[in-house]
Amino acid sequence: MAVLLLSLFPASMTAQDDFFYIFLCFGQSNMVGQGEITEADKVVDESFLSLSAVDGPDGRKVGQWRPAVPPLCRANTGLSLVDFFGRTLRKNYPDKVRIGVVYVAVDGCAIDLFDKDAYKNYTDTIKPEWLKNEIAAYGGNPYGRMVEMARKAQREGVIRGILFHQGETDAYNDRWLQKVKKIYGDLMTDLKLDPKRVPFIAGETVGEDQHGVCAHANPTINRLPEVIPNSYVVSSNGCEAGPDKVHFSAKGYRTLGTRYGLAMMRAMGFDVTNGEATEEVTPVAKAISAIDVDGSIDGNGIFHARATMPVNRVEYVSFSGKTLKTIPMNGAQKMDVDTRLFPEEQHLVIVFYAENGSSVSVEPRGVTVP
Questions:
Q1: Cα–Cα distance between 180 and 247 in angstroms, integer?
Q2: Degrees to nearest 5, angle at CA 56 with 130 and 71
Q3: What is the pLDDT, as a whole number, of residue 228?
Q4: Which residues are designated catalytic?
């Protein structure tokens, strides 16, 4: 049975149900959702629900369940990957299973916003009013609101997994990986969850095949399984981009969300027979075999880099994804890279390409100065 009106579903539920599967969803703008919503998108199964984390002019209230009619994140947002994640599960799970999402996402935010020990220092530096207003909608603490809503959801169902899409802003170095690991660990502790039973599904930014502005974040995102064992990365390859090449189109969100759903089902032990979608889940072995680079920057701005495998070339890349300079490395594993080039680039990224085709991105500001 499909539903279109919010009033058709009661405002709250009280009895815990082991077959009410809850999924936490957080991140930045591509998790928020920017896709155009059609009338067909508003037709959802009555067993796919969303727990509102904000109040809204459309009648949604913090802490109240509503049918998962888009927009899910907030009243003024668009179609998202979560819409089609939920529909994929609903299509494949037994009829007795209900799907519930707890949804907290903020456009353009850095990963620090979801670190309960770092968010205040981060929010104190924010200047755009629109970003301040989005954060204020979550009581000024999106992580805290997510945990609050998750605890409410736990009284009614069981948290089965976490969806994450963030990285366009800062997924360019190991520091980002460690921050995501910490946030995942904090969620496990604060919600008393078993990491072995709660898969973490992340997704790539708009890919190079779509001329993605932030595609250089993807090598770092693909390393998440190295630091979070029960995690999987969903490829964005072939997911259509919107005109800005930062966000996905509605068609892209439909594809990406379906891949998230199939990845979660695999992680939960379900037999997923769709070969193409199965291959889109990055295996841990592939991530571990990728190149890694560490080192430090000296007082003259030279990055003394050490790579885990021979490097073919180094590229300087702008935040918009434009390659500014390419330097051949001819198989070197130790190299000195000048970070002072292109001082006008606020978010300069340096990409190291291994001879085996893998790559890793480093944002110079994130490298320790001895």
A1: 21
A2: 85
A3: 95
A4: 29, 244, 247
Nearest-angstrom CA–CA distance, 73 and 164: 13
**pLDDT of amino acid 278:** 34
Place of tokens 């998202």: 80
pLDDT of residue 45: 94
Look-up: residue for tokens 């968010």?
119
Label each residue of the chain as H, E or C: CEECCHHHCCCCCCCCCCCEEEEEEEECHHHHCCECCCCHHHCEECCEEEECCCCCCCCCCCCCEEECCCCCCCCCCCECHHHHHHHHHHHHCCCCCEEEEEEEECCCCCHHHHCCCCHHHHHCCCCCHHHHHHHHCCCCCHHHHHHHHHHHHHCCCEEEEEEEECCCCCCCCHHHHHHHHHHHHHHHHHCCCCHHHCCEEEECCCCHHHCCCCHHHHHHHCCHHHHCCCEEEECCCCCCECCCCCCECHHHHHHHHHHHHHHHHHHCCCCCCCHHHHHCEECHHHHHCCCCEEEEECCCCEEEEEEEEEEEEEEEECCCCCEEEEEEEEEEEEEEEECCCCCCCCCCEEEEEECCCCEEEECHHHCCCC
Q: What is the pTM of this model?
A: 0.75
pLDDT (0 to 100) of residue 14: 47
Mean pLDDT by 10 residues, the chain (370 residues): 35 66 97 96 96 97 97 96 96 92 96 96 93 96 98 96 96 92 97 95 96 93 94 96 94 96 91 47 37 84 90 78 83 91 77 76 55
